[in-house]
Write a structure and sequence with these properties.
Helices cover 31% and strands 25% of the residues. The chain is an alpha+beta fold. The protein folds into 2 domains: 237 residues, Nucleotidyltransferase, domain 5; 175 residues, 2-Layer Sandwich (Nucleotidyltransferase, domain 5). Strands 21-22-20-19-25-26 form a 6-stranded mixed sheet. The protein has a 5-stranded mixed sheet with strand order 3-2-1-6-18, with helices on both faces. A hairpin with a 2-residue loop joins strand 9 and strand 10. The longest helix is centred in the last third of the chain and has 23 residues. The chain is globular.
């Protein structure tokens, strides 16, 4: 018995097939959607819905066989596509990167007027409505993965899971409703939306929650994800309020508590770019060679007395915050110590967010390329948390999580605890 998970990302679409009994990742396929369109201004970030659908359907059809029991779907949150009365797309996809919400509105910005963020779907709709560019035949709007489910199942109204609804802005988590007029069918349950070629298709879920769902099998663990950005997440039965900490809907009446480092893994990439700039005064070097040199530095300078604040991209509360290197002496200003210091800073920022959550957890799970490709960073987290880090065997966390959600939605598993038993760690 198999399950399919589809993840519609910002630049590509991924599809996986998992074995329901063993949790083995049988097949993984990723294709670039090549969907970005030219906007009217630099701040406009839009994509072709048709291109995304063509790629997603092509991947899905290539994965289907007679042993597939369910299809789960996830994708890039926050963005929206408008749909008409017949459920056809009548706009491009306005992605989560879209900047119209940061444009001036009265004495503030469109996003701040709604107490939200640019790129969030309801902010985008507010700007479009105020400026008379909302499609006249638009009946509703939804995320791109909600639209994909609509297309697969022949639905006329989007069915939106709470994990996605919260990413739209102007949403009450406690009441599962929008504080903004939005014509969608809201649900917080495991739910089958319809069928595609006779196979049940579950309601789409947010990619953040899907990634956590496929990696954090034990509620007493902490998830550390390091990619371009980085996050630290726990599951809680109650919301948590703290600076730079967000509480998001999760599953089975639980909440996902997340701390996000805006620079995150990019801090290490920034250091790589700095070294590349220096090396190129001597000879041409590629990124792989620079990373190998940095790995050697990490071995030579296992401990550093430098303190590196890696919040180079600011924080949500203070976007103008700048990173820094401090504690410099005539003895420790060396490349190896700077490199180690950056890793220490990346780990310390997330550990500080965990402390703000004020919830005791005992184990840590790691995901993302920044974890998988950097054993020295894993070591930093293990030292801070005082325990060994577990890393899932499967790479495509969001698509895998969508498949798990689908397996519960169609009744193959009773609940999250039962479904997550098939997750395997290295």
């Amino acid at each position: 018995m198999k399950a399919i998970g589809i993840d519609i990302g910002t630049t590509s679409v991924c599809g996986v097939v998992i074995d329901v009994q063993s949790g083995e990742l049988i097949t993984s396929t990723t294709k670039n959607s090549d969907a970005f369109l030219a906007g009217v201004a630099d701040w406009e970030k839009i994509q072709s819905v048709d291109k995304i659908m063509d790629v997603a359907v092509s991947i899905l059809d290539g994965l289907i066989d007679s042993d597939v029991s369910v299809i789960g779907v996830t994708g890039q949150m926050h963005g929206i596509v408008y749909t008409d009365i017949n459920a056809n797309a009548v706009s491009p996809l306005y992605t989560w990167q879209d900047g119209r919400g940061n444009l001036p509105y009265k004495d503030t910005t469109y996003a701040k007027h709604l107490n939200s963020f640019s790129g969030y779907g309801n902010v985008t709709d507010f700007y479009n409505t105020e400026n008379g560019i909302r499609p006249k035949n638009a009946e509703s709007y939804c995320t791109i993965h909600d639209y994909f489910v609509m297309r697969l199942c022949g639905l006329n109204v989007p069915v939106m899971h709470s994990s996605d609804a919260a990413s739209m802005g102007c949403y009450s988590i406690s009441e599962n409703r929008f504080d903004y007029e939005c014509n969608v069918d809201l649900t917080s349950d495991y739910r089958i939306a319809g069928e595609y070629k006779g196979i049940p298709v579950s309601v789409a879920i947010g990619d953040n929650q899907a990634s956590v769902f496929s990696t954090l099998a034990d509620k007493n663990d902490i998830l550390v994800n390091v990619g371009t950005g980085s996050q630290i997440s726990i599951i809680s039965d109650k919301p948590v309020a703290a600076d730079n900490i967000e509480t998001r809907p999760y599953f089975e009446n639980d909440y996902l508590v997340v701390g996000s480092a805006l620079c995150g893994g990019r801090a290490y990439s920034m250091l790589k770019d700095f070294y590349s700039g220096v090396f190129k005064y001597i000879e041409d070097v590629d990124d792989d060679r620079v990373y190998k040199i940095m790995s050697k530095m990490l071995k030579d300078g296992d401990k550093s007395s430098l303190t590196v604040d890696t919040r180079f991209a600011g924080t949500r509360k203070d976007p103008k915050h700048c990173g820094s290197i401090s504690g410099i002496t005539v003895d420790n200003f060396k490349p190896a110590y700077v490199t180690v210091g950056v890793l220490d800073g990346m780990a310390a920022e997330l550990f500080g967010m965990y402390k703000q959550m004020n919830r005791v957890r005992y184990g840590i799970v790691g995901s993302g390329n920044g974890i998988r490709k950097n054993p020295a960073l894993v070591k930093r987290f293990e030292m801070l948390f005082g325990t060994e880090m577990k890393i899932p065997k499967h790479l495509e966390e969001a698509a895998f999580g969508a498949a798990l959600f689908g397996l519960i939605s169609c009744g193959i598993f009773k609940n999250a605890a039962e479904a997550q038993k098939i997750i395997r760690y290295n």
